[in-house]
Write a structure and sequence with these properties.
Elements (H helix, E strand, L loop, with lengths): L23 H10 L4 H11 L4 H10 L34 E2 L22 E2 L4 E4 L4 E2 L2 H6 L8 E2 L4 E2 L4 E2 L10 E4 L39 E2 L8 H14 L3 H12 L8 H14 L3 H12 L10 H15 L2 H11 L6 H11 L7 H9 L5 H22 L23 H11 L2 H6 L14 H7 L5 H14 L5 H4 L13 H6 L27 H47 L25 E3 L5 E3 L16 E9 L15 E13 H9 L6 E5 L2 E9 L5 E11 L17 E14 L4 H5 L2
Antiparallel strand pairs: 1-9, 2-7, 3-6, 3-8, 4-5, 10-11, 12-13, 13-17, 14-15, 15-16, 16-17
Helix pairs in contact: 1-3, 2-5, 3-5, 3-6, 5-7, 6-7, 7-9, 8-9, 8-10, 9-11, 10-11, 10-12, 12-13, 12-14, 13-14, 13-16
């Protein structure tokens, strides 16, 4: 008789229905009789007896198959050398299901979750799966769900997250409530959720007479339970040994790894399970052993299939290895003694876009022994990681999702601390930045570094800005098309600090075309008098062509820098409208008063309503014009503004201030107000607007800053009083945007060496 939660009594072979009461002889008889409750009993037994040598010895006994084979066959074996996609997990007996009328299900619709190709239940997007009763699971599964260490079951009422995988052998209880996310029940209507799956009676025998039901439980039917397969029992035993901390258990696991203890299950399966079990409570020595064996199985044992053995070990490491172990694994295969096949298997395992893989991916990318195809794939992954991480870190919508001023603000990306830490500590590391130190003579044009460019413009790192500056310095005369990447210049660039790269490139405004003087005498053509003159003419023509190309490039870079400023303004405007970047708010002290007086201290409001001093380096560096009406502002100072979950992560300093004002004022007066505060600023006149373009040192030593003030007419001035003449200084509707970006100083290597 299978175990029924909440019921007492005895089951198959006279064993207690409550598996927590099983004694060693119950485990032995259950193994011989293929009791369906054996696997969940083992899963609960391992953690409960973690300090017992006798428990470890009993588990070793249970590794050996009984004389009578299981009526349930093992799952098909993976192809030789294939990476295990998931550990074989013990099955859990399905809970009894109560009969109920099938109400509320739309005709022709059956909300079920079929197992995938690996016989796992995967919770899909769009469905909410809530357990109505506790589901026993192995400790490793409970840990994935961040349940307390002592818990060996998923409690009733728990909602399984999207993407969660129930391993082979653990079915989703038929009583689980499945609803559609797009069809929530009407609140307070008293009507059933139209997307809910009600409990449905399962086929099987009714409870035998004499077994009483707890109060409140109606008629119950029990699904006949399937005996476990040999692989499922072995899997449960090996993982239970991993929970046992005694020397007996640790030695048994090492013997399984070395092939000194054999079972009826496939060697590759047992090896992978033993490696997973060792990592539950691995010592530093055991971690080193596993890393060495995964890189080169010959260090563990000889004979057998090295590829299959290595794949099994790598599959175990993929499930449980820490980022530090993954780094050590890379180090073990980029040595001269490692074979190309060993490196390929390790690379394949580490290519998955997981946060814990990212530091190891950076190490692979740096190595000279890794194949070019792997590096090319990593480069593309790094670019995608970085763009997403920048949008998360700055709470800025991507260019495709951005809203224009006046439109409803799009929601910003939610922070994923684990993903961000993986990117910041891995991809944004010196290992990757060093590889992007691009020397100009390595290429004839920008196009030779397309992938490197894509990554460089997405990484907020001093080293990549330096690399980008070197490349631009050597190829600026080719213009901006290779950095434009479609659309407006700057929309694809995720690092705001790159504005300083663009501004340091030779730039020049186009000069107005002068009218042709028809009365001017045409220039007299010079006649060639021989080969020498022809050579000089050719040189003059080449010089002229080069000058024209450079002039054209300077004009392109000027337009690019202006477009980049507008792109950043829109990006931070949208982020501000979505509620991001509000820690450092503009105060009255930062707005010019009519009397010209200023406040001594700059403060920022707190949630309690009090104010706290803002460090000088984080303050908005300008005083806004008189009576400025702020309609949007965004401020972020990294790394201090990192959330608590990211404290200690690698983050280069980055300060951004954006303020947008909409008011009626005199354009010349507003322009003069900011001109006076920016020494050496370039005042660029534009149709109906002004652009104040400034770069210089930041507040803190070693920092560099860009400031851009754009003042744009937003309508027509009011008609002057009768008899008065209109003036350029008359107040009119204006939009004034101030953008301040500050990053660590960076200069091309050659420029530094030349000084």
């Amino acid at each position: 008789m299978p175990s029924i939660p909440g019921l007492g009594g005895v089951g198959l072979g006279g064993r207690p229905l409550n598996v927590a009461r099983w004694k060693p002889e119950d485990f032995r008889s259950a193994r011989a009789q293929w009791d369906p409750n054996l696997v969940p009993a083992i899963a609960a037994y391992g953690p409960g007896k973690a300090a017992s040598e006798n428990a470890a010895k009993l588990l070793m006994e249970l590794l050996q198959a009984p004389a009578t084979p299981s009526p349930t066959p093992n799952a098909p074996a993976a192809a030789p050398g294939a990476m295990p996609s998931a550990p074989v997990a013990p099955p859990v007996a399905p809970a009894p299901v109560a009969a109920a009328p099938a109400v509320g299900i739309p005709a022709g619709e059956d909300l079920q979750i079929p197992p995938d190709a690996d016989n796992r239940i995967v919770i899909p997007d769009g469905l909410i799966v809530t357990l109505t009763e506790a589901l026993p699971v192995p400790p490793a599964i409970a840990k994935q769900l961040q349940l307390p260490p002592e818990v060996n079951e998923i409690p009733a009422g728990f909602e399984l997250p999207t993407g969660f995988k129930l391993p082979p052998g653990i079915p989703l209880p038929a009583t689980a409530k499945i609803t559609r996310r797009d069809r929530p029940p009407a609140a307070g209507s008293g009507q059933p959720d139209p997307g809910a799956i009600p409990p449905v009676a399962a086929p099987g025998p009714s409870l035998p007479p004499g077994i009483g039901l707890p109060p409140g439980i109606g008629k119950v039917q029990v699904t006949p339970l399937t005996p476990p397969s040999e692989d499922q029992v072995v899997s449960a035993v090996v993982l239970a040994l991993g929970e046992n901390k005694t020397d007996v258990a640790r030695q048994a696991l090492r013997s399984l790894l070395k092939g000194e203890i054999r079972t009826a299950s496939a060697d590759a399966l047992v090896t992978g399970l033993a490696a997973q079990a060792v990592m539950i409570h691995a010592t530093p020595e055991e971690e080193k052993m596993l890393i060495a064996a995964a890189a080169n199985p010959a260090t563990l044992r000889s004979g057998g299939s090295p590829v299959g053995l290595q794949a099994a070990l790598l599959g175990a490491l993929e499930e449980r290895a820490s980022p530090q172990m993954r780094l050590a694994l890379v180090d073990s295969v980029i040595v001269p003694t490692a074979t190309a096949e060993q490196r390929k298997l390790v690379s394949d395992m580490l290519m998955r876009p997981l946060p814990e893989n990212m530091p190891a991916q950076a190490r692979l990318y740096k190595s000279e022994r890794v194949e070019p195809a792997v590096k090319e794939a990593l480069l593309k992954q790094f670019t995608a990681y970085s763009a997403q991480a920048m949008d998360q870190l700055l709470s800025t919508p991507s260019a495709a999702a951005a809203a224009s001023p006046g439109e409803a603000a799009k929601p910003v990306q939610q922070l994923d601390p684990k993903f961000l830490r993986g990117v910041m500590d891995g991809v944004w590391s010196q290992d990757v930045a060093d590889r992007l130190k691009i020397e100009g003579e390595r290429a004839d044009e920008f196009a030779d570094f397309a992938e490197e460019l894509n990554l460089a413009i997405a990484m907020p790192v001093k080293g990549t800005r330096t690399a980008l500056m070197e490349l631009v310095r050597d190829h600026w005369d080719e213009g901006t098309s290779k950095l434009q990447m479609g659309g407006r210049f700057g929309d694809a660039i995720r690092d705001p600090g790159d504005i300083l790269v663009v501004k340091r490139t030779p730039r020049k405004d186009e000069e107005p075309v002068k009218p042709q003087d028809d009365d001017k005498k045409p220039k007299r053509e010079r006649r060639s008098t021989g080969a020498t003159d022809a050579k000089k003419d050719k040189a003059r023509e080449e010089f002229k062509k080069k000058n024209e190309q450079e002039e054209k490039a300077k004009h392109e870079w000027m337009k690019a820098s202006e477009d980049f400023v507008h792109s950043l303004n829109e990006r931070f405007y949208n982020a501000a409208k979505a509620g991001a970047g509000q820690r450092y708010k503009i105060t009255a002290a930062e707005i010019e008063s009519p009397t010209g007086t200023t406040s001594e201290a700059t403060t920022t409001p707190t949630s309690a309503g009090s104010v706290v001093p803002v460090p000088l380096a984080f303050r908005f560096p300008l005083k806004l014009h008189e009576s400025a009406r702020v309609t949007a502002e965004y401020h972020i100072c990294l790394p201090p503004d990192l959330p608590k979950d990211l404290k200690g992560a690698t983050a280069a300093p980055l300060i951004v201030h954006y303020v947008r004002m909409e008011d009626t004022a005199s354009l010349p007066k507003v322009n003069s107000h900011y001109l006076a505060q920016l020494k050496g600023v370039t005042n660029r006149a534009r149709p109906n607007s002004r652009w104040l373009d400034w770069t210089g040192p930041g507040v803190s030593r070693g920092m560099t800053r860009s400031v851009d003030v754009t003042i744009t007419r937003n309508g027509e001035p009011s008609p002057p009083p009768e008899g008065a003449r209109p003036s350029a200084a008359d107040p009119l509707p204006l939009i004034t945007e101030v953008l301040v970006i500050e990053v660590p100083e960076f200069r091309p290597v050659k420029e530094v060496e030349g000084k």
